[in-house]
From TrEMBL:
SUPFAM superfamilies: P-loop containing nucleoside triphosphate hydrolases
InterPro entries xref list: Gpn, Gpn3, P-loop_NTPase
Upper lineage: Eukaryota, Fungi, Fungi incertae sedis, Mucoromycota, Glomeromycotina
Protein name per its UniProtKB record: GPN-loop GTPase 3
Role played: Small GTPase required for proper nuclear import of RNA polymerase II and III (RNAPII and RNAPIII). May act at an RNAP assembly step prior to nuclear import.
Gene Ontology MF, one: GTP binding
UniProt subunit comment: Binds to RNA polymerase II (RNAPII).
Keyword GTP-binding part of the UniProt annotation: yes
Amino acid sequence: MGPAGSGKSTYCATMMTHCQNIGRSVHLFNLDPAAEKFEYNPTIDIRDLITLEDVMEELQYGPNGGLIYCLEFLLNNMDWLEDELGEYEDDYLIIDCPGQIELYTHFPIMRRICECLQRMHFRICGVYLLESQFIQDNSKFFAGVMSAMSAMVSLEIPHINVLSKMDLLGKFKKRELERRAQIIVSYTCILS
Ligand SMILES: Nc1nc2c(ncn2[C@@H]2O[C@H](COP(=O)(O)OP(=O)(O)OP(=O)(O)O)[C@@H](O)[C@H]2O)c(=O)[nH]1
């Protein structure tokens, strides 16, 4: 999870490579009906069920309303997902989620998808990506921390925050960020 462009697909691809290197049986599940390309082809893909492009064209929805429609459509067709997941119930799944933050913080959609997966006996862990460059600015730092916490509280699953794009920071900025990261950890611990 994480805002648009925070590095979710890159993180998923890196984790796929890592898991394959250490011999884990792992698959990519694309949950973004608007996704265009992937480094690894997804084994399970919501676009096989519904695409944002079709919804926008046929129902005249905008991109945000269209995305909500697609995920609600998935929730109403969970037997499709159950069939798709059937073969992989003993494997690791990495789920690449859409970047619209309101899906985690405002609407119960992602929570309901998590609950469905839990009913299928999957054990879920949320990974929330925050772009390290964004949180150097005070207001963006608090906005990022709050959105990560909001996702954690609303999904009620084990939650890990990851700062992405650290390679773009210089030495001084990295040190400053470490100090701020401590604050994120403290807030997260207080709330959990
Ligand atoms: N330098 C650097 N660039 C990165 C890193 N992770 C991702 N990027 C770049 O950031 C851009 C966005 O990365 P994505 O992985 O597509 O981000 P995303 O969160 O999946 O984006 P959406 O699907 O649009 O929400 C791409 O150009 C990546 O190459 C990183 O760790 N370092």
